[in-house]
Specification:
By secondary structure, the protein is α/β, with parallel strands linked by helices. It has 13 helices and 16 strands. The strands form 4 sheets. A 6-stranded parallel sheet has the order 6-5-7-8-9-15, with helices on one face. A 4-stranded antiparallel sheet has the order 1-2-3-4, covered by helices on one side. Strands 11-10-12-13 form a 4-stranded parallel sheet, with helices on both faces. Helix 6 (127-142) packs across helix 13 (349-364). The protein is elongated. The protein starts with a helix and ends in an 18-residue tail after the last strand. The relative contact order is 0.10.
């Protein structure tokens, strides 16, 4: 009995927060939010009505039409303070909860948005994904939708998952991410004429709505920054050729070098997966090039690779920034506390998530999109890892 009591006491203190709905529970009462209302109900007494409370019950007690109650709870109309107080009082007294299932059946929609993502390499942390998930969840709830997460399957298996969700009407639309060339999800969804918006781009001939971070423009700015610091031998650690976003970022690096007439050495571009190990090993390889070809700066396609590059520079008794400049991409939270701090490109992930969901809901409601293709430029955050360059410091032999 003691353990059971402790469990109940602990569960009674859980706090649930949502952008449009929240529920704060103690051992004596429960508080929740419907639209703009904050309601507190006692758990120490039984409900006043045994049957399910409807909008019409609330309307009758408040002395208004049920359409008015519905619109007020959704925040669609303004009423007098007295009317709002009567509705709030009726909601509290009757213990009203919206019947989501009935509404979904009536409107022939699930109010669910499907989303799946590719797992990170070696199950490493993915702060960009975490920010994106938080953004789409908050924005979806603002519109009274929810996100249905489902596992990612390699190969054609993932197509059958999307197809099953479409046929069974379990979702109203999809958010896509981790797009590469020839992504077969796109023609599948277009064949079904099913609403979707992507975080990212694919083949140029695929015409579909997307929001993306302009990686080319970001890396172009980062490389120009290194050139302004006096660097002329700049390398890049890139993703494999199959990565569409990786190609865009590589194009930004190449454009910046071409603008100042610098011939890129073949040894300066190394490709690999987005891991710390690749960054470390590739940088070690670069540091053992002959002094005439050895880079004085390294542009990295993502922060995790950049951290590996930074550690490799330090392992060779060189100082990041002064001897070898390092830049990343993502501005992950942890990289801000490195010594030295890592210069990186901050992705506006919060903005991307909000835009993706807003566009998708407009498509579901057959509304015209103001922009079908949205590109958002990342922000270059300059820290010590790309500053203080001494032009002769890396000409010495590394060990």
């Amino acid at each position: 009995m003691t353990n059971k009591k402790k469990t109940i006491d602990k569960m009674g203190k859980i706090l649930f927060n949502r952008s449009e709905r929240s529920c704060e529970r103690s051992t004596n009462n429960v508080s929740f939010v419907i639209g703009s209302f904050s309601i507190t109900q006692s758990l120490s007494r039984k409900p006043t009505m045994a049957k399910y409370t409807t909008l019409k019950d609330v309307a009758k007690l408040a002395g208004v039409s049920y359409q008015t109650v519905s619109k007020v709870l959704r925040g669609q109309i303004q009423v007098s303070p007295e009317t709002k107080t009567r509705i709030e009082s009726a909601v509290q007294q009757l213990g009203y909860r919206p019947n989501i299932s009935a509404r979904s059946l009536r409107m022939q929609e699930s109010r669910l948005i499907g989303y799946s993502w590719h797992p990170s390499y070696n199950n490493s942390a993915n702060p960009v994904l975490e920010q994106f998930l938080q953004s789409i969840i908050r924005t979806a709830e603002h519109y009274d939708y929810h996100i249905l997460l489902f596992p990612f399957h390699l190969g054609n298996d993932i197509l059958s998952v999307y197809q099953d969700l479409i046929i069974t009407n379990r979702v109203d639309g999809f958010i896509l991410s981790d797009l590469d060339y020839d992504d077969q999800r796109i023609p599948l969804l277009q064949e079904y004429d099913f609403p979707f918006v992507a975080f990212g781009r694919s083949n140029p001939e695929y015409n579909f709505p997307y929001v993306d971070v302009d990686g080319r423009a970001g890396i172009l700015e980062a490389t120009r920054h290194l050139l302004e610091q006096g660097h002329r031998k700049i390398a890049m650690l890139a993703w494999p050729p199959r990565s569409r976003s990786g190609k865009a970022r590589l194009n930004g690096y190449q454009q910046a070098m071409q603008e100042v007439g610098i011939q890129i050495e073949a040894e300066w571009i190394l490709r690999g997966e987005g891991t710390y190990r690749f960054g470390y090993n590739a940088t070690t390889q670069l540091l053992h090039l002959p002094p005439t070809k050895r880079p004085t700066a390294i542009v990295n396609v993502m922060d995790e690779i950049a951290v590996g590059a930074l550690r490799a520079v330090q392992a060779h008794n060189l100082t990041p920034g002064r001897d070898i400049a390092i830049t990343g991409f993502d501005d992950s939270p942890a990289t801000r506390y490195l010594k030295p701090g890592l210069t990186s490109l901050r992705q506006p992930v919060e903005k991307v998530g909000k835009q993706v969901v807003t566009m998708l809901i407009k498509l579901q409601h057959k509304e015209e999109l103001e922009e079908k293709h949205v590109l958002i430029k990342p922000e270059l955050i300059i820290r010590e890892s790309s500053l203080g360059f001494k032009s002769n410091s890396t000409q010495k032999e590394t060990t």
